[in-house]
Write a structure and sequence with these properties.
The complex is a heterodimer. Chain A is mainly β. Chain A contains 3 helices and 29 strands. The chains are: A mainly beta, B alpha+beta. Chain B: InterPro entries: Dockerin_dom_sf, EF_Hand_1_Ca_BS.
Chain lengths: 405, 280
């Protein structure tokens, strides 16, 4: 067999081993705007648009990369309503510069166009950087991949020096007693904020104020200096921004201050914990499995209480060993970043040693040595093959060297 | 006669009264009503009237760190009616141990559990003819292939690690699953059943019937044991499974009904999320 035909054979074999769900389609994901100019320290948003192209997309996920030296991702939220529920596995990693944001719909799948999510970044330092949609992103219809990856794009972000303060103008700062930390999610949905101008050589005539979900907007509503505060009630669950700007009598103005307000009043989705054994014998480990999602701030942690004891944070699966005989009621809570909780429970009963439980035939059989150590065997096999190959290679070279003499 | 020593009286009183003081609930009325629910909980009596409804079940504890501490509790009781099939019980409440009228040798009907935690087959029926007679006929031929009951024969997958196989057999024949008759029981002379453990992936079983005249050909039964959430059977719980799952939302399709409550809803979703990213 010639080298070319051998290569073709290998390629054809490899192409047959692909994922069974990797069929391509016509649905697309793209970032917008394609280019963005922002000032250092400013917050800005990038939108992920989804185009169904008649592919009936019910589940979508965007994997995004960015340079964490230049950008800090502060939020990734499903927006637009095309995919209203958050998929598991969504999150931001500001160390690696990665975002995974997935959504799905229980209603009509997406055939036309819609927005998947909105990403919010803060520009950390001047320079040019990029936010990119990665090719492992998904647009899925009824379990089948339908994404056309050729439409995946990136956003070029040019970060410039921060906007200069006009001569004589002061610096406006906002404080919100209802939401004192700009990075924390709160269940409080009524907002009370005040602001003041520090420094400056002129008197403020009025303020421009607005509250919305855009991180960087010029405030529209004008209020007098006597009203250096804002009260707003029953805001919906979202990441809001309060924008305030000061206007001077001479027509100049302060820079606009933007204050993020995180509100999440809705608890996580229902949780249904399960145990690996509903009936166990003393000495047998019992695994407690649990998980759910939260469509607002996201799941912060899970907590477990046994038989009415105190709740302690745990991760799934929570393996309980050395259980004494008795009945155990496991109460599992999912708590989101705002502190809303959703709870579920499951029981298991542990019997004394020697109890004959009705177990299915074959349940006690030991896993074969091959199955329990298959990766060790595979690894050892690869090493042996490499050693043999290396030996043959060295022997062949020696033989060639000797024959040259 | 020597007079009794009064110096011993305090000791006698102490010995008599100490056991009583251990269990006393001072200054309160304490009542135990054993007829309520049986959930184990952890209560402290702090003044006032305190009523414990239900049996005081065994252990109260709390979790600390990656382990847990048992705070109190003892005296586990196996109670018929607690929802657990305990040793010596065939069933308990709605827990029927995967048994049905068919698996008990009847043609149809509804199997229930009696108040003594034994099967109640009074609502099971066997159709039409047959019945009686019989006795032990002399065996002249090897048994025919055993049947897998039509109720389960088309089951393609399951999200549980155990499955109850059952069906019909030639009268009196011994049934072996993969050459082994361990665990096989015979609800009637013409039926059989066995609960088998499954491994992830496709499980194939050869079922044969044997009598003194020989052994039948094998009836092959295949069933796929899926990881909960792995609707696509690719061995991983991922977005592809989620996509399939959402299409089943609100239906009773067994494919997405992981907790087998008859509805695909957030509880099934929670079970899928608990295994998100898991591979087998």
């Amino acid at each position: 067999m010639s080298k070319i035909s051998l290569a073709l054979f290998i390629v054809s074999i490899l192409s047959c081993v692909g994922s069974p769900v990797s069929a391509a389609g016509f649905a697309t994901l793209s970032l917008s705007p394609g280019q963005s100019n922002v000032g250092e320290g400013e917050t800005f948003q990038v939108f992920i648009f989804a185009q169904g192209n008649q592919e009936a997309i019910d589940t979508a996920r965007a994997y995004i990369s960015f340079d964490p030296d230049f950008l800090l991702a502060t939020d990734a939220s499903l927006t637009g309503g095309a995919f209203p529920r958050t998929s598991p596995g969504s999150g931001i990693n500001n160390t690696k510069g990665e975002i995974s944001i997935g959504g799905f719909t229980l209603g009509d799948p997406l055939d036309e166009s819609g927005t998947l999510a909105t990403l919010t970044f803060t520009a950390l330092k001047t320079g040019t950087t990029e936010i990119a949609l990665l090719p492992n992103s998904h647009m899925i219809s009824n379990g089948e991949e339908r994404i056309d990856t050729s439409w995946l794009n990136s956003v070029e972000v040019m970060i410039e020096d921060a906007q200069a303060v006009q001569e004589g103008a002061g610096t406006l700062s906002i404080t919100c007693d209802s939401h004192p930390d700009v990075n924390v999610w709160y269940t409080e949905n009524s907002v009370y904020c005040t602001w003041e101008v520090e420094g400056g050589e002129k008197a403020i005539e009025s303020y421009g104020v607005s509250i919305d979900q855009n991180p960087d907007i010029n405030p529209t509503q004008e209020v007098t200096t006597a009203t250096a505060s804002l009260e707003q009630y029953d805001l919906g669950d979202a990441l809001w921004y309060l924008h305030v700007k000061g206007f001077y009598e001479d027509g100049t103005e302060t820079l606009t201050a933007h204050y993020p307000i995180h509100i999440d009043t809705i608890p996580p989705n229902p949780i249904f914990p399960t145990v690996s054994l509903e009936q166990a014998i003393v000495g047998e480990p019992v695994e407690l499995w649990f998980g759910t999602t939260d469509d607002g701030s996201g799941i912060a942690y899970y907590e477990v209480a046994i038989n009415g004891g105190i709740y302690i944070p745990q991760t799934s699966p929570f393996v309980l060993t050395d259980l004494e005989e008795g009945t155990y009621l496991f109460q599992v809570g999912a708590v989101d970043y705002a502190g809303n909780g959703m709870y579920g429970s499951v029981s298991t009963r542990v019997y004394p040693e020697g109890t004959e439980l009705d177990r299915p035939v074959g349940a006690d059989k030991e896993v074969s040595i091959w199955k329990s150590n298959q990766w060790i065997f595979v690894g050892a096999g690869v090493i042996v093959l490499l050693l043999i190959g290396g030996g043959i290679f060295i022997a062949a070279r020696r033989h060639k060297t000797i024959s040259q003499f | 006669m020597k007079k009794p020593s009064f110096s011993m009286l305090p000791l006698v009183f102490t010995c008599l009264l100490f056991p009583l003081t251990v269990w006393a609930v001072t200054g309160t009325t304490y009542e135990i009503d054993p007829s309520g629910d049986t959930d184990a909980t952890h209560h402290n009596v702090t003044g006032g009237t305190y009523t414990v409804e239900g049996s005081v079940n065994p252990i109260a504890g709390n979790v600390s760190g990656s382990s847990y501490n048992i705070l109190s509790g003892s005296a586990l009781r196996y109670v018929c009616g607690d929802g657990f099939i305990d040793p010596g019980e065939s069933c308990d409440g709605s827990q029927l141990d995967s048994q049905t009228c068919a698996s008990r040798g009847f043609d149809r009907g509804t199997l229930t559990c009696s108040s003594s935690c034994t099967f109640d087959t009074s609502a099971c029926e066997s159709g039409g003819g047959g019945g009686g007679g019989g006795g032990s006929s002399s065996l002249t031929t090897a048994p025919s292939e055993p049947d897998v009951d039509e109720e389960i024969v088309d089951t393609e997958f399951i999200y549980d690690d155990a499955f109850t196989l059952f069906g019909d057999r030639t009268s009196g024949a011994t049934i072996k699953v993969d050459g082994d008759d361990e665990g096989v029981t015979y609800p009637s002379t013409t039926t059989w059943e066995v609960e088998i453990a499954l491994e992830y992936g496709l499980n194939t079983f050869g079922i044969t019937a044997t009598n003194t005249r020989g052994t039948s050909d094998a009836t092959v039964f295949e069933i796929y044991y899926r990881l909960i959430g792995d609707l696509t059977e690719d061995g991983e719980v991922s977005d592809y499974d989620l996509s399939r799952f959402v299409r089943l939302w609100g239906t009773d399709d067994a494919e997405g009904d992981f907790n087998t409550d008859g509805t695909i809803d957030d509880y099934d979703f929670s079970m899928m999320v608990a295994r998100w990213g898991q591979e087998v």
